[in-house]
Amino acid sequence: MKSALRSRRCRPVAQSRVTSQCGNARSLRGITGADREGGSLTPNVLKQAAAFHGHLGPWLVLGLKAGAHARRKLTASPFELNARVFCPAGTPYTCFVDGVQFSSGCTMGKGNISHVRAKGCRVEFTRTGASHKGTKVQSGSGTMLRFALRSEVWDELHSRSGGGMSGAARLGREFARRPLEALFSV
Ligand SMILES: [Zn+2]
Questions:
Q1: Whether pTM exceeds 0.85
Q2: DSSP class of residue 42?
Q3: What tens digit of pLDDT does each residue of 122-131 get?
Q4: Which one, of 76, 99, 73, 96, lies nearest residue 86 by Cα?
Q5: Which CATH number covers residue 63?
Q6: Ligand 1 geometric centre to CA of 87 (Å)
Q7: Neighbours of ion ligand 1 (CB under 5 A)
Q8: Using one digit for the tens of pLDDT, what is the confidence trace for 68-82?
């Protein structure tokens, strides 16, 4: 009992726990829900993300797509990723941040997402091999992936911003079907 409390012995236990959480990351991959190469998001994922965020809209969907693609491309668990989101402060832009949180697993609670006030909208993901509760998961490669919202999409979002919540939801579903490359330069 006493020896089990020694940090040397605790470490593998903690590691296996994190590993099993990364196993959950497999099911989380289901939650991130984008099909191959950043394609459509499933209706179920949109529903869950909308419940998390409070409503469905195109900025949320953009964050979902970028985060899901980063998770898959960098083959990282939510503990091994760091996200820096660059966009103006305030909604609807920061709805993008919630999309990134939901699909990438980079969250305020884990401290591996940050928002930087900026013009335009982009997000940078780094595979860090970050630690959680002091447990090093895996040393990361430091690989970075950047998604910058295309200027024509930015313009479109501003020209189609009317229509209230139902208009935003409709536009969100439309964006969910678009290929990633049509929305971002990666
Ligand atoms: Zn929103």
A1: no
A2: P
A3: 999 999 865 5
A4: 96
A5: 3.30.1330.130
A6: 14
A7: 57, 95
A8: 999 999 887 888 899
